[in-house]
Input
Amino acid sequence: MKIKGKKIADISVMIAGKAGDGVLFTGNVLAKILKRQGWWVSTYRDFPSNIRGEPTNYTIRASLEKIYGQADDIDVFMAFDCGAIIDHADKIVKGGIFLCDGLGLAHVAPSRIDGRTYHIFPLRKLARENFQSELYKNMIALGALSHILDLDFRVIEGIISETFLKRKGKKIVRKNIRAVRLGCQQAKKMIEQEEIHPLVEKKDSGRLLLSGNEAIAMGSLAAGCRYFAAYPICPATEIWQWLAVVLPEYNGLVIQTEDELAALNMALGASYAGARAMTSTSGPGASLMMEAFSLAGMAEIPVVVAHVQRVGPSTGMPTKTEQSDLDQWVYGSHGEFPRIVLSPGTIEECFEFTVKAFNLAEKYQCPVILLTEQDYGQNLRTVKKFDLTKVKIDRGKLLNQEELEGIKDYRRYKFTPDGISPRALPGMKNGLHMVESNEHDQNGYRDEDSENRIRMMQKRMRKLENAAKDLIPPRVWGDRESEFGIIGFGSTFGPIQEAIAQLKDRKIRAKYMQIRTLWPFPRKKVEEFLDSCKEVFVVENNFTGQLGQLIRSQVQMPIRIKNILKYSSQAFRPQEISSQIQMAVR
Amino acid sequence: MKKEDRLEQRNPIEDLLRMDRIPHIWCPGCGIGTVLTSFAEALRKSEVDLDKIAVLSGIGCTGRVAGYVKLDSIHTTHGRAVPVATGLKLANPELKVVVFSGDGDIAGIGGNHFIHAARRNMDIMIICVNNFNYAMTGGQVAATTPRGANASTAPYGNFEYPFSLPYLAEASGATYVARWTALHLRRVTKSMQEALKKRGFSFIEVITPCVTLYARRNRLGDGLNLLKYYYEKSEIQHGADTRTLDISYQGKLIVGKFVDIEKPTFLDCMNEHLGKVLGDKYQTYGVNND
Output
């Protein structure tokens, strides 16, 4: 909770219950309201891999400043059942407020423990008595929150109509609005004015509330992707669900494949035909894709794979977050071939890097991986509208019919100084060619001659040697003069930024390098950064410190780095990073 | 030899082959070359635009076909010719897409892709050369090896039930299903011509001799002995119930055209359905909307 004047400038609201209670729905409506009131929003879902019954919680954080992740504490807690109290009571900040459906308990006077106020708020009872259905508990809860946060009622009404009008009609809209009002009135009776957390008033600035998965889907549409093949898997499927709705209106196609082997192979087939093609997956699916990943490398077929990491190994925890599949894509599959692995850290970067991924794939005729995580893959954050004028399409050395007719003896894998051979498509005149998964000569004919093998390996591997100018460089944040460095990739972006601010308050200055291209590894820039630090901390959501290992294996200088690791299936909170650094440097 | 004589000796299907790749790798007595000849013949007779044909193969002896046909072709990894073909066809519906591969590739490692492509009625043509074993890797037992036959990984004989490929294809949704042996050259060609014209998932199984491995291991003689077996034991039964097509070791081979039906393809279904649901918002796929 950050306070500006008498009002709140940064707040976290957790809604908790059992899967099926409508936690996600209520949270999403609240997130939309806060966004519409002009706040920066970041949500955090902690939900089980099942449809009904297990505990779930959803935190909606809003701030006047741009935020990229969860805060350290919870300020307002709305629980649909008492079980949630036990699980989360310790996360409630002093001065925080706690509402819980007593599930039929009689009215109990509010109690104050350690500066927190606990209220029994009979959500289900109110819903049954007033609306003859427990379903309305969600809107009653929202009403109570609207009192606590002093939300703008016009905004709430607007969002409820948008949510229900089309699908359910006017009557349901009115009923839901009544439920919100009832929740608000009841909360007013129960909660004293000095307990509430009124937000600073702001105006809507037309931002979008998006998940990383949606941003990747939008990026791929903007980049001209018109073929999407995938197999269902948590937590990546939203990319596909978004495209499934949109692509039919853009002369595009989505297909649900029989497995992930087929998904990447179909994308390769479509790309071979000339389409910009993509697939998305997560842990176990990526393992099945390893075979075709290598085919893309050998046959030099451009393709984009969005991998939204979840907790492994094996089935692991499908709906929770981790950064443990870096090794899989950087080192994965059989044989050696060029690949590009990008790691967006924000929703904006999910969009930008997706566009970039398609360009890189076609320019370098190799597979490009967008490595993201469940954390910002499924959670929502506010972003400024994307600037579509910045979207540039580069199809690399793709030949058109006229160019192809000017070529005598077209060779698909012609040796060139940069290793990239002009690409014809099947069906084009004068471009007869063969694409081979075996080692091949310039014609694409299978060839087991050692000399040819050496030249072909060099040709393929040469492609990325001079690619640095096109790749996304690491970005340095924080106090550049500081001697304490932090390195991270992906979702740690938000918590590290906030950890740096917390350290600054404690008179420790630190800087942060965000690695945005994991492969080819930005060796020089990382070496410069390491060289400028007395001590370096690598922050990762995994057990073995995969980024740390990658750095150690790539930089050509003696280094000392310390890993700050978390593998609890949850994303970092800023305090977890700042306190470990503080302890280490003091 | 005079130039004219050499011209006379030109192979009639040379125009359809990458002659710089010949001689091919197949063993004497192997049937794959025969099936490829039929395919070339079918292409010639069908008068299709060769620029609009793509051939895909997986891995194995038959997988090498993609490297010999003078057509745009892709030699994929083991078992994955069908999904790559699906992607290719959907991204460029103008192309006639032909998968030319072996039984191990289509029915073993690629079995899942095969049944799902048939289920979707994907508009691709599959030629499956069935030689009852994994030949390229040294004669291992396959999903098609008849019970009792010996294989390098079934040294005491195979006791597993094999797939009946026409039955599998029909049950999965194929719109054209035929089975022949390498002896039925002209009938194979005719089936291929029909399949090239067909819109929908078409499947042709061709039983061929594997002399070096299957025949030798089972002491069945040479290529000619196997062709004699086909001659003696094959029985043409067009329209036969595909449930009756099981192959026992050196037993009867029921061949013929079993299925030839019309059914909307994957893209037909998609265009019809989405057109109905989305109305004017829908851009018919595979049609140039510019």
